[in-house]
Structures are given as structure tokens and as C-alpha cells.
Amino acid sequence: MTSEQTARSETPICAPHYLVPSVNQARTLDALINAIPEPDTLVMPSTPTLEHHFEDILEAVEEIHNLSATLRVIPPDDTNRDEYEGRLYAALTHLDHHVKPAIKEWDRIVDRMPEA
After folding, report:
1. CB-based contacts of 71: which residues, under 8 Å, 6+ apart?
2. Total structural domains in the chain?
């Protein structure tokens, strides 16, 4: 672990007041806990499931971007073109596999949040 990661992990996490519901607003203890941001999350509040989907989505998007750039410069008669097209299709399928569940999980998180 680098010194920056160590410092980050030792820094207390304080959520802005507008992210943390008052005790009267929190319907359950679980809603209150989920409203406090976790370190290294993409969105707040989040869950491990949502973070997993976001990681896979970002990896798939990067792969799609790289394969698209490669396919733009490969001649149509190149012998490796079929392989790159197949990998692009697989990356798009992988993206689809994670986008829908991520949206569903994000909706579930938002639905569990206390009313403001």
C-alpha cells in the first residue's frame, strides 16, 4: 500500500450534511448507514454490487474504445479483423450484461433512501 493509499484509508470519512439524513428522516438504521459515503465509490450512496457493476462497465467501455480505434485502422481484408470484431461483440455483450443490473441496483438504492 502506498503512503497516499494509507493516508486516504486513515482519513475519517465525513459526508456533507445534505447526504446524511437526520435521525428523524431515516426510516431504518440501514438507510442511515447506506447514506454515508464509502471510500473509493463512484456514486454515493453505493453498494458492493453496484460498485462491481461499475468496475465491469468501465472495463468494457475501455475495451470497446480500444477495439473501435483498432478496427478503424485495420484494412477490411486484414486476416486479424474477424478476431477484433469478435472481441468487440463480446465487449458489447459484456457491457449489456452489467448495465441493466447496475441500473436496477441503483434504483433499488435510491428507493431505500429516506424521503428528504
Report:
1. 81, 84, 85, 88
2. 1
With a pLDDT cut of 70, the percent of the chain lying above it is 63
Which residue type is seen at 108? R
Place of cell 441496483: 105
- CA 87 from chain centre, in angstroms, equals 22
Which residues constitute the domain of residue 53?
Answer: 3-112
pLDDT tens per residue across span 28-76: 545 545 555 555 666 777 888 999 999 999 999 999 999 999 999 999 9
Is residue 101 very low, low, confident or very high in pLDDT (cuts 50, 70, 90)? Answer: very high
- Residue 73 to residues 18, 38, 69, 70, 77: CA-CA distances in angstroms? 49, 42, 7, 6, 12
What the block records as the C-alpha cell of 13 is 470519512
Tracing cell 484509508 back to the chain, one arrives at: 9
Q: Which residues contact 22 (CB under 8 A, 6 or more apart)?
A: none
Report the sign of the C-alpha dihedral through residues 14, 18, 21, 23, in that order: positive
